[in-house]
Design a protein that fits this description.
225 residues; mainly alpha; globular
Length: 225
């Protein structure tokens, strides 16, 4: 009787563990592929000297994000997430070209931001995966901080307040880092069972982390002609 009881408890736990490991594996495989595709599209954008999209970027971002979420449970969700990440990579081209042309050490700034982004992401992911801590308590703070940073960054751009913009870049680095911990925790503890949505969440955090680090590096370490 005791063995039978143990079996009924262990099997569901084993099934949950297998499902969680599957989501983690599929998420990181898809994330690697989308990051690579995004980098290719950024290169295309740089070579063709694509102009900044302005508000068109926001329309494309939210439109493709909604499309991916809508198709997340079908095979078309894969196509949608590649469309989203490819578009986001393409929008990086103008920023990268601006950094490369405005600063004599532009290439170094880009590579440094890229390296720091990779180190931060891998370090935070490894910490969440190995400790298996639940970071769901962070969601309220991250949401409020994200809304504040988004609004303040728009104010800084339109009113040309460099110090406010600098502060928002630093805040976005912290928010993106917190989101990586939160999103990885969600995958581990069953809060996110769809690897397409898990991938797109981590991709957005990595994108914001890279852009914010690049802008901070340009402001503090950029050398102009």
């Amino acid at each position: 009787m005791q063995r039978g009881f143990q079996t009924t408890v262990t099997r569901p736990q084993t099934g949950i563990a297998v499902q969680t490991n599957s989501v983690i594996r599929n998420t990181y495989i898809l994330l690697s592929l989308t990051l690579l595709f995004s980098a290719v599209m950024a290169g295309v954008s740089m070579v063709t000297n694509a102009p900044p999209m302005g508000f068109g970027m926001l329309i494309g971002y939210f439109g493709l994000l909604y499309l991916t979420a809508f198709l997340r449970n079908s095979v078309w969700g894969i196509a949608a997430i590649f469309a989203f990440t490819g578009f986001m990579g393409y929008t990086l081209g103008p920023l990268l070209n601006m950094i490369m042309s405005s600063y004599t050490n532009g290439a170094q700034l880009v590579m440094t931001a890229f390296g720091l982004t990779g180190i931060i992401f891998m370090g935070l992911s490894a910490y969440a995966l190995t400790t298996r801590k639940d970071f769901s308590y962070m969601i309220g703070f991250l949401f409020a901080a994200g809304m504040l940073a988004f609004v303040a960054s728009l104010v800084a751009v339109f009113l040309h307040i460099p110090m406010l913009y600098l502060g928002m870049c630093a805040l976005f680095v912290l928010i993106a880092s917190g989101m990586i911990l939160f999103q990885t925790s969600q995958i581990i503890h069953g809060g996110e069972r769809n690897y397409i949505m898990a991938t797109i969440s981590l991709y957005v955090s990595i994108y914001n982390l890279f852009v914010s680090l690049l802008q901070l590096l340009a402001l503090f370490a950029g050398r102009r002609d």
